[in-house]
Amino acid sequence: MKKFLSVVLALTMVLCLLAGCGSGSSASASKSAAASASKSAAASASASASTSADDAVTAGVADGVSKASNLPDVSGDKTVNIIFSGGSFQSENEAENVFTQMVQKLSGGSINVEWHQYNELGGDLDVITNVQFGDIGMGISSPAPLTTMLPNMSVFDAYYLINDQQQAYDVMDGNIGQQIDKDSEAIGMKIVAWCENGWRNLTCNKEVHSMADLKGMKIRTMENSLQMAAWSALGANPTPMSFGEVYTALQQGTIDGQENPLGIIASNSFMDIQKYLVMSKHVYTPMPWFINLDLYNSMTDNQKAVYDYCCQYAQQWQRDRNVELNTTILADFKAKNVNVIELDDATIQSFQDAITSAKVYDQVKAAMSNPELLDTLMK
Questions:
Q1: CA distance 133 to 129
Q2: Residue 315: which residues within 8 A CB-CB, separation 6 or more?
Q3: SS3 of 267, please?
Q4: 235 burial type by CB count under 10 A (0-12 exposed, 13-18 middle, 19+ buried)
């Protein structure tokens, strides 16, 4: 099976190159989206912004190394080689860079990380499947593509149940995150960090202050039945579409809006073609890091201590950096006169009431292996 998947992955990458990475598969769409995000970010970023990002990584590595106390010397241990498939938004990319440099330094090179940026090894599901079978050592993914493998990930499809930053961290670091860790180990993987993509917000070409304003609006969503059900409950017309097609679809009016975290909205220049940024904060998206369990267990106990420290440091660093960058992005949008709409508590409550009435939370529980986890969150 491992050899078969390796061959399929290799053939897919070759075909993508020959076809110009079209949108015919989830992997191709993700690679196309990543390339688009990367090019867009590069085109819009100033030299000072690039320097700031480099400085942030350099400072992060130095801080992480300086705080590494009582770690064992593993420089003489057998070398462990890890292929690491990374993501495509700024705080995540920077945290991966911090982790890669730290683990090389603190292990004395006995943990060697081959880092592949911007989803270049494939889309989320492709990468995590290959992590499961050991053809890729480490990878990251948002929850939605993984719900068939890890049904309890569906908890992150429940709109308006995680309502503030600390609560999000409590969910990932508490019983829910620990159960999903166990689920992952049962299928050959280990979650080594819970990073974040953050709150998803709506962009569109009309003002939205109530459910009435959403009625009939064609909103691009992921191909996720639970999230589509939530938007339908709010009166919108959810339209699943591969990410690589979204910008053109917005330009051509095929869809009226889309929803993503601020980092993705900024790096893909969506506000150049959308009139309103609605701070809906309808759902929170984590970005867990996975490692193949056999690969992890092949490390010595001392190597695991170094590796675990680097993962946990990178997790906290990425969370803090993501919050910082989102604050900067929002301030930049406002400075450029982007129409930013903040929804009041009464409107948010009406959205949650509509989702409850439509029994969407019941659908989420039905999709989970441990529905009681959602009950705990709802309390």
A1: 7
A2: 95, 193, 194, 195, 289
A3: helix
A4: middle
Which residues lie below 8 Å from residue 163, measured CB to CB, with a gap of 6+? 281
The gap from C-alpha 76 to its chain's centroid, in whole angstroms, comes to: 35
> Can you list the alpha helix ranges (DSSP code H) found in 215-268?
225-233, 246-252, 262-267
Q: Which of 246, 33, 240, 182 is nearest to 122 (CA)?
A: 33
Q: Provide DSSP, 309-349.
A: HHHHHHHHHHHHHHHHHHHHHHHHHHHTT-EEEEPPHHHHH
Q: DSSP class of residue 279?
A: E
What digits encode the pLDDT tens for the residues 224-279?
999 999 999 999 999 999 999 999 999 999 999 999 999 999 989 999 999 999 99
Q: And the tokens for 359?
A: 């029994």
Segment 41-64, tens digit of pLDDT: 333 433 344 568 999 999 999 999
The rounded distance, in Å, linking the Cα atoms of 57 and 226 is 36
- Rounded distance between C-alpha atoms, residue 315 and residue 168, angstroms: 14
Helix axes 26-44, 2-18, angle to 10 degrees: 50
Asked if 146 and 115 touch (Cβ cutoff 8 Å), the reply is: no
CA 181 distance to own-chain centroid? 17
Gap between the Cα atoms of 303 and 186, Å rounded:
23
Burial of residue 197, with CB atoms counted within 10 A of its CB: 0-12 exposed, 13-18 middle, 19 or more buried: buried
Locate 29 and state its tokens: 């769409």
The residue count of the chain comes to: 379
Tell me phi and psi for residue 259, to 5 degrees. -135, 130
